[in-house]
C-alpha cells in the first residue's frame, strides 16, 4: 500500500498536470512533459486517469513538429462543480460554479446577523440542496463546498455577535466538520478577502500578468493581492490584514495591540460610534445603537451620505480617507495597476469610497508618475467572495498545488 506521503505526492502531481492544462487552454502531452518536468510515461499515466475521470477532454490535433500531429487536451469545464458561500451580515450568498469559474446558479438567503452557529448549520444543508437542485447539475459532479468568512486561518475563528448580541467566536473547524457530516461534501472555510480576490480575478477577466489589490469590506477591512496570475498567501495564509495598518501611530488602541489601525479609525463599527457622538444624529438617521446592530446602522449612515446628508457624508468620507491613506502606502510598496473595492460594506456608499480613494491616490501615490492605475468598484460585490470560495474548493479537491500560478487560470 502506498504511504500517505506518496499518496500526497501523486495527488500533487496530478493537480500540477491539471493546472497546466487549465492554464494552457489546449496543450499536448509533450508540452505537458516539458512544462512539468515529469517523464512522458508519467504524463501519459496521469492524462489517462484524468481522461477516464472525465475531468479533461481530447479536443483535436496540434501542429506537427516533424512526426505525428500531437493530440491536444483541455479541461472539461462542466465535469466538476463546487459551491461557494459567503457568510454576509445581511445575506448569505451562494454560488455554484464549474471547473472553469463560470457561475451556473446563485442563491441568496438570510444573513448571519444575530444568528447562532447552530441555526446556520441547521439551515445550510437545506439551502445547499435547494441551490444544487435548481442548478440542474449532477450531484456526483460536486467536489465540495467553500465558505468565505471573516477571520484568519491561523486563529480558525469567525468573530461574531450572536443572537443574544454577545460577542462570540465561531469555530472554522466545527463548521467544516458538521457541514461535511450533514451534506456528505468536503467543506473548507477560507478567509473572505482571499476568496474575494480570487473571485474578482474570475469575474473581471483580468490577465495573468496583472497585479492588483482587492479590498474587501464586510465587518472589517481585508484585502487580497493577485500578482502574476496567483493570489499571494504569505508564509502562513494570513495575508491581507489591511485593517491593522497603522494610519495614526498616536491614535486609539486597537485589540491587535497597535494604535491608530485602519480598523479602529474607519471600520463600520467605528463610523457608527462616531455618528452616535453627534448630537441628534441617532434620531435623525434612525440608528438603533444596540450592541451588535452596527451593520444595519452603518448602512443607514451610508444611505444618508449617498442622499447628501452633510454629517453622514463627513463620516463616510473620513472612513474613506483613512482607507485611502492605507492604500497610498500599499500602492507605493506594491506598484499596483488596479485596486478593486468589493464586499457588502461597499454596497451602499461604495461610490464615495471609490471617489475618495481615487482622489487621494492621484494626489499622493508615487506611481502616478510611472504608469496609469485604476480604482474600481466591483460589479459583483456580493458574489466575488462566494465565487472565489467555490474556485478554491474545486482546486483543493482536485489536488492542485496551493501556490500554483494556474490556480487562477489564464
Ligand atoms: Zn490593529
From TrEMBL:
UniProt-recorded name of the protein: ROK family transcriptional regulator
Similarity field: Belongs to the ROK (NagC/XylR) family.
Pfam family for this entry, one: ROK
Xref: InterPro entries: ATPase_NBD, ROK, ROK_cs, WH-like_DNA-bd_sf, WH_DNA-bd_sf
Organism field: Microbacterium deminutum
Amino acid at each position: 500500500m502506498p504511504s500517505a506521503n506518496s499518496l500526497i505526492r501523486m495527488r500533487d502531481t496530478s493537480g500540477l498536470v491539471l493546472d497546466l492544462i487549465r492554464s494552457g487552454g489546449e496543450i499536448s502531452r509533450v508540452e505537458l512533459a516539458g512544462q512539468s518536468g515529469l517523464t512522458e510515461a508519467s504524463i501519459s499515466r496521469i492524462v489517462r486517469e484524468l481522461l477516464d475521470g472525465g475531468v479533461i477532454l481530447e479536443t483535436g490535433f496540434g501542429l506537427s513538429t516533424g512526426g505525428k500531429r500531437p493530440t491536444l487536451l483541455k479541461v472539461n469545464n462542466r465535469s466538476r462543480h463546487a459551491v461557494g458561500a459567503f457568510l454576509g451580515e445581511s445575506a448569505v450568498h451562494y454560488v455554484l460554479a464549474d471547473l472553469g469559474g463560470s457561475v451556473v446558479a446563485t442563491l441568496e438567503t438570510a444573513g448571519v446577523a444575530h444568528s447562532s452557529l447552530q441555526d446556520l448549520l441547521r439551515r445550510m444543508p437545506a439551502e445547499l440542496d435547494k441551490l444544487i437542485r435548481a442548478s440542474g447539475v449532477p450531484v456526483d459532479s460536486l467536489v465540495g463546498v467553500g465558505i468565505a468568512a471573516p477571520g484568519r486561518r491561523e486563529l480558525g475563528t469567525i468573530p461574531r455577535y450572536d443572537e443574544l448580541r454577545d460577542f462570540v467566536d465561531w469555530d472554522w473547524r466545527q463548521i467544516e466538520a458538521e457541514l461535511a457530516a450533514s451534506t456528505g461534501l468536503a467543506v473548507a472555510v477560507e478567509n473572505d478577502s482571499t476568496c474575494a480576490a480570487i473571485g474578482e480575478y474570475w469575474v473581471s477577466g483580468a490577465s495573468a500578468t496583472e497585479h492588483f489589490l482587492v479590498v474587501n469590506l464586510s465587518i472589517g477591512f481585508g484585502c487580497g493581492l493577485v500578482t502574476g496570475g496567483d493570489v499571494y498567501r504569505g508564509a502562513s495564509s494570513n495575508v491581507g490584514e489591511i485593517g491593522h495598518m497603522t494610519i495614526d501611530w498616536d491614535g486609539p488602541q486597537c485589540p491587535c495591540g497597535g494604535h491608530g489601525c485602519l480598523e479602529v479609525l474607519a471600520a463600520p463599527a467605528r463610523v457608527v460610534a462616531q455618528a452616535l457622538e453627534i448630537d441628534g444624529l441617532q434620531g435623525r438617521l434612525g440608528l438603533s445603537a444596540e450592541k451588535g446592530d452596527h451593520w444595519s446602522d452603518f448602512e443607514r449612515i451610508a444611505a444618508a451620505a449617498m442622499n447628501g446628508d452633510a454629517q453622514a457624508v463627513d463620516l463616510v468620507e473620513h472612513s474613506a480617507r483613512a482607507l485611502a491613506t492605507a492604500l497610498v502606502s500599499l500602492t507605493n510598496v506594491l506598484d499596483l495597476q488596479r485596486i478593486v473595492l468589493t464586499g457588502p460594506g461597499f454596497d451602499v456608499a461604495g461610490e464615495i469610497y471609490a471617489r475618495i480613494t481615487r482622489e487621494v491616490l492621484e494626489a499622493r501615490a508615487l506611481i502616478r508618475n510611472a504608469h496609469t492605475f485604476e480604482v474600481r468598484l466591483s460589479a459583483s460585490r456580493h458574489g466575488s467572495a462566494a465565487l472565489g470560495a467555490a474556485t478554491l474548493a474545486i482546486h483543493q479537491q482536485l489536488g492542485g498545488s496551493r501556490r500554483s500560478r494556474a490556480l487562477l487560470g489564464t
